[in-house]
Amino acid sequence: MHKTFAIVVNIPTLAFLVVLFLPNSANTESFDFFENRIRPALVKYCYPCHSGLQVKGNLRLDSKPGWIVGGNRGGAIVPYQPSNSLLMTAINYQDPNLSMPPKGKLPKKIIDDFETWIKKGANDPRDSHQPEIKSFDIQARSNHWCFQPVRYTKLPTVIDTGWPITRIDHFILNKLEKKGLKPSPQAKKQTLIRRLTYALIGLPPTPEEIRSFEDDKSATAYEDLVDRLLASPRFGEKWARHWMDLVRYAESYGHEGDFSIGNVWPYRDYLIRAFNQDIPYDQFVREHIAGDLLPEPRIHPQLGYNESVMGTAFYHLGEATHSPVDVKQDESIRLSNQIDVLSKTFLGLTVGCAQCHDHKFDPISTADYYALFNTLANSRMTFASIQHPEKLQSLTDRLKHSKHELKQNFIDTWPQQIKQIGYFLTALPELKTRTLLNYQEKRKQHNKKEDSLISDFESGTYEGWTVSGTAFGKFPASSNNSTQKDIDGFQGRQFANSYLKSDKPKGKLLSSPFKINKPYINFLIGGGNHQGKTCANLRIEGQIVHTQTGRNADKLEAVSWSVEPFMGKIAQFEIVDNYSGSWGHILIDHIFQSNLSTDIDHYYHQMIEQLATENENLKVDLLKKWYETRQKSDFDNKDHPLFHWWKEVRRLSNDPISVQDNHSQQSKTTVNPTNEYRVLGSLSGEKFKDWRIEATAFPVRPSQYADIVISGIDRHISSLVPSSWHSAGSSTRLAGALRSPTFDVKHDFIHIRAMGHGAQIRIVINNLQIIRGPLHGGLVHTVNSKKPTWYKFDLSRWKGHRAYVELLQDGGNDNFIAADLVVLHNGQLPVKFNQQPNESSLSYLGSYSSLTSLAEKFEKSLIHTFHRWYNGSADSSDIDLLNFLLSNQLLKTAENVQISLSDYVKLEKLIPEDQRVVAMTDGPNRPGVVYVSGDYRQEGASISSRFLEVLSQSTLPFNSEGSGRLELAESIISEENPLTARVMVNRIWHHLFGRGIVPTVDNFGHMGQEPSHPQLLDYLAHQFVHNKWSVKSVIREIVLSQVFQISSNQSAESKLIDPTNKLLQAMNVRRLESESIRDGMLAVSGRLNLEMYGPSVKVHLTPFMIGRGKPNESGPLDGNGRRSVYIEIRRNFLPAMMLTFDMPTPFATIGSRNRSNVPSQALTLMNDPFVMDQAKFWAKKILLNQQTEREKQIQEIFEKALSRSPSPEEIEMASEILKKQVSLYSSIHGTSSEKDIYLQSWTDLTHAIFNLKEFIYVF
Predict the structure, then answer these.
(1) Helix (H, G, I), strand (E, B) or coil at 394
(2) CA pair distance 340, 41, nearest whole angstrom
(3) pLDDT at site 661
């Protein structure tokens, strides 16, 4: 069905009039808002006086007619006008004679909710007064149709036996014939292929596909088309988007900062693959509810991904506050949303309505609600690895075995590795003395006249320099300038300074080219330490060969670059200030070439070789490492593991030590001999046995043996760990987590003894995952310690909350964590947990007569220290010393250790890239409580995890050591549960016909609508299960039915008898979803990019998209041509075009989108930059083929956009428009822009096609 299109052209825009009235579906979001926010408040605060038999002031608030009619003062609510609503006047206490409720003003949040509800139209499903419910009669309520078993009935009889071609048709025709109606004739092939293609893959058919279908006269032509579309990879993209509406898919949390959730897009890709592969729906449900708990997870056959765990991401896609003040309230809101989404999506029930009281209509009790609440409260958010668990575990086991061999070789060769190590320590003072004497001699011999000055800025100008930007001003800085009074270390009076009244200006200085004719370039530098942004660079042939930043100080210091390898080359000196923040400036002075370096370090190497030649106990490479380590490490600090030995070295070298007592905060943990405490985790007494691991970084149980850690880019043995539960048992490149049992916070503090690098310890309170929490910073510590160190957390403000400890290891070159003791306590840490230094290690410290005897004692001491580590008796100072030597590679490397290490590293390279998805992981089975009236502050009766009583016919708790989610999943997909299959087949029917057999697709309960064809619904549900829960089988059977293929021309009789077409006498006319409109434009313009999967394309930001948390980077206008399902969805920055065409805001389950018809839609099609961009892109594609006749070009436009050929009148009208537009633009621009004139004219035509009603509707 189509009408000749009409276009009115006006410059500079096109105007179109499109009018179509369609019945709007229920506003699901408003309904949810009412049920979750308004109804509970009405019940608690208003019903006592304004419902049932208690109706004061003749005002009823227990039904919509009640507040419309109002009481003695008139109507209580004016939809969309809170300021004119008496209810708002009353609850705001604006009238002293009308203040409700009389016992006290409502909380501000509830008042705000009422205002929001009224502003949005005061949607209220309570069409009539509900009688007061005296008791919760689950048996009586369970008689509702949806709780009855699915019944497979015989086909109903029909009069016109020739019309049905599938079983479905019998059910439809039977109902029509009872009303005296006949179905509409079959649709034309062009209409049918467009309808089917959009329904199954969300894209228009191509002209070639249309012609092929029209030309195929075989009996199976339509069936073949159906099978081809079901097999298309585009199918999953279309049907995944339907599912994303249900689980409120978004990639940011919304609220104030709109922070990213992180690792969400793998879930979207999982959905696409699942629908394409037709994963059985019961398996699909299992994976969503408990994919992390399946004993045999589903593995992607090619990619090796763990598909099952990805399903659990849906729990965590809800809105969240980044830093809630009340974490218990936050948990209540969060889990309420999860229950609401879970129950509506899979069961079609509004379980969330039982949060404050037993459900007002359905057989769902408050106990049911909190049983589910407890199931989810005993589960935990995580970012799970999606790698093949068995393959990864197999590789982990091989790595562990290889590492064990390496460790044994390391242990066996320890004496060899530390042989003569003491001589390197004792040689350092001699090395320093010799180098200093050598440098002093060189300075005496150096002739400064041979130095070659590059610049000292004393001319007072930038002569010889190219200046860009404004940072350096017009002239060099002067010491006479009062603004330079805090700068020190420059020579003379002038120097380069980019601090021009502030750090904001940016700029560069580039010297004239010069030839390098000396081995060193020396200069003075100060200012900011911002790599590449506040720096000096040496450029040769445009490439930077040396660079140096300041040290965040305004004292200039000498720097020397060795440039001997570049002698004879042409170079330029560059001074850069490209930073506007703190310390965003650079200071440079006195740049010159010289035969003498100003840095004494350049002369140590000569002395190292000299010293090693004289002393056979020393090796050049190892002595060099000792020297470099001494330069960057403060041996004089009392906390340093070599402090006591170094003190003796300096005494014997007549080099007195200046002690620096800089004990770290972590080492100052105080102790208390008597204290109340609880050990939450310990290697002794199996105190770790209830802890849970995730992924493969941590072993199944803590190790009773010491271990080695291999880290660094170069992969060397960098650390030793004592017996502990640690994450480096197989490799630091593996990720994982270790979590404690949930505990009630009763103590003020928790101390965790741990060591490691780059890992995190977190205390998770009431399952709060800290998004960006300024209030909760004390709940996280990053572990960076080479020895066992106490990490302290203050829990005093969290008493009465539930919590657990989480040790997080991200795979990396250096990351690991080892923990051996977790203690909850009050006051100070009990003295029994304070680890004192080993007396055996202290016994070696004393006075020695010579450096040689000291070196020998140091070596012998290390042997004993090593054995203490291996035997499990090492203290933290032992570990600190050994790890200092290893991490700085100060030991000799035994050949067999190196061979074993090489074998291990080869195996380690097989570890796949760590890929994560936001997911759920299990916690322990702990009883919960019912919140009285839904108030989290009022804890009532104890409750255990279980399923809904009405569906399980039981109140027995789940038999599980964990949360019970796996048992919940099995209960939901049980064949005894009549809802799961019904709900899903109804959703499929809704997407194919525009209306479900049960119109309220998310609510099958008493407040939902009755099914129009209950027997058909049960037939489809039965077939669904019988066909092994195949979604594609259901879709195939439906679209092959006669009723799907009929035309959309509703008869006059049908309009009278069935005005809403509930009986499907004709096909429903439907507007395309927003995604299909956008994707259709991309497809017909030729811009569509069919690349699948991967990270989302950033949302395109417009000047009108404002608010906190706005991303720094905007995505491309056309999304790189990708389908809409791949465009990032940020809650606070949703694309306006998509919202205009009713893409739902992702806050709740939306099984049925609104179908609005508003002026903004026509305005969007006329003026949206994306629409105009695609019209222009399409016009360019048309003009590329100059050989095609205009009439044929117009025909192709219609076939691409509307899936049909144009009529002769339409061809003539389009041709006339093109002529008029060419003439119009020629008169404006002249003939000099002929190419642009034709492009604009064709763009106007393609833009007009996009604006046709026929383009955005299917018939």
Answers:
(1) helix
(2) 18
(3) 47
In this structure, the strands spanning 507-511 and 743-744 are unpaired
Beta bridge partners of 765: 803
Give tens-digit pLDDT for 793-812: 999 999 999 999 999 999 88
Structure tokens at 913: 């890239």
Tell me if 742 sits within 8 A of 924, measured CB to CB: yes
- Contact status, residue 289 vs residue 972, Cβ threshold 8 Å: yes
CA distance 604 to 628: 10
Q: Which of 98-107, 516-525, 578-587 has the lowest mean pLDDT?
A: 98-107
Q: Which contiguous run of DSSP H or E holds residue 919?
A: strand 916-922
**How many C-beta neighbours within 10 Å does residue 391 have?**
14
Give dist(CA 807, CA 655) in Å, integer.
45
Q: 51 pairs with which residues across the strands?
A: 54
Three-state SS at 617: coil
DSSP per-residue string spanning 571-590: EEEEEEE---STT--EEEEE
Q: Taking Cα atoms as reference points, which of 10, 4, 8, 76 lies closest to residue 42? A: 76
Tens of pLDDT along 125-156?
777 655 544 467 888 899 999 999 999 888 99
Element (H, E) at 221: helix 221-231
> What is the identity of the amino acid at 534?
T
Count CB-CB contacts under 10 A for residue 50.
23
- CB contact at 8 A, 934 and 356: yes
Q: What would the pLDDT profile of 456-475 be if each residue is shown by its tens digit?
A: 999 999 999 999 999 999 99
Distance CA 124, CA 898 (A): 75
Determine the Cα angle at 1178 with ends 1177 and 1180, to 5°: 65
Closest CA to 1104 of 1168, 1156, 1176: 1168
What DSSP letter does each residue of 84-105 carry, written as one string?
Answer: G-HHHHHHTT-BTTB-SSTTSP
1028-1055 b/e (C-beta count within 10 Å ≥ 16 → b) = ebbbbbbbbbbbbbbbbbbbbebeeebe
Q: What is the 3-state secondary structure (H, E, C) of 280-349?
A: CHHHHHHHHHHCCCCCCCCECCCCCCEHHHHHHHHHHCCCCCCCCCCHHHHHHHHHHHHHHHHHHHHHCC
Nearest residue to 574 (alpha-carbon basis) of 486, 513, 634? 513
Residue labelled with tokens 């087949």: 985
In terms of Cα–Cα distance, which of 979, 1005, 995 is closest to 1153?
995
Contact between 246 and 289 (Cβ < 8 Å): no
Token pair listed for 508:
């560069």
- Give strand ranges (E) for 528-629: 534-540, 543-549, 553-562, 570-577, 586-594
Amino acid at 1127: I
CA dihedral 1082, 1084, 1085, 1091 (to 10 degrees): 40
Residue 745 CA to residue 743 CA, distance in Å, equals: 6
What is the second-level CATH architecture of the domain 450-595?
A: Sandwich (2.60)
Supply the pLDDT for residue 671: 45
- Bin 80: left if φ > 0, else alpha if -120 < ψ < 50, else beta: left
More confident residue, 126 or 578: 578
CB 809 within 8 A of CB 735: yes
Q: Break the chain into its structural domains and give their ranges.
A: 8-18+1157-1258, 28-144, 262-385+920-974, 394-413+670-744+770-833+894-908, 450-595
* Cβ-count burial 788-824 (b if 16+ within 10 Å, e if not): bbbbebebeebeebbbbbbbbbbbbebbbbbbbbbbb
Q: Which residues contact 908 (CB under 8 A, 6 or more apart)?
A: 399, 710, 715, 731, 733
Contact 783, 756 (CB under 8 A): yes
Rg, Å, the chain Cα set: 38
